[in-house]
Task: inverse folding
């Protein structure tokens, strides 16, 4: 069977944090990563073309360090949003988006781990 997609690499892995500023300072000042982009609740860091992201949880949420990864983002070698979304849906895979981001594709693997697919050039 030919795979419908070709993953070109891992774009980023997301960890949830209680204090975004503290996490950002640790990864920049201690580990030498650089900010790729950020907002008030998230910070994407890069090191040699690979990324890790820190998402700050809401005040009433807990962080389960060591046992929780929010999601893994995979960059596709080719494809466009509509075709990728349709292919997943035709395989009976439930596709979810993200608030204010209509071109975000989230779904779960067979064990329930959350994955995100990024199109080339995103």
Result:
């Amino acid at each position: 069977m030919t795979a419908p997609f070709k993953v070109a690499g891992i774009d980023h892995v997301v960890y949830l944090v209680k204090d975004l500023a503290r996490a950002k300072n640790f990864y920049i000042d201690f580990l030498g990563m650089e900010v790729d982009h950020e907002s008030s609740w998230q910070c994407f860091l890069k090191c040699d073309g690979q990324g890790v992201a820190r998402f700050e949880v809401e005040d009433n949420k807990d962080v389960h360090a060591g046992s929780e990864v929010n999601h893994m983002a995979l960059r596709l070698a080719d494809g466009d949003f509509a075709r990728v979304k349709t292919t997943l849906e035709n395989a009976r895979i439930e596709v979810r988006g993200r608030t204010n981001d209509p071109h975000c594709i989230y779904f779960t693997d067979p064990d329930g781990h959350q994955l995100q697919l990024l199109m080339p050039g995103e």
Notes: The domain at 7-58+69-118 is CATH 3.10.180.10 (2,3-Dihydroxybiphenyl 1,2-Dioxygenase; domain 1). Residues 20-30 form the longest helix (11 residues). The longest strand covers residues 7-17. The chain has one domain: 7-58+69-118.
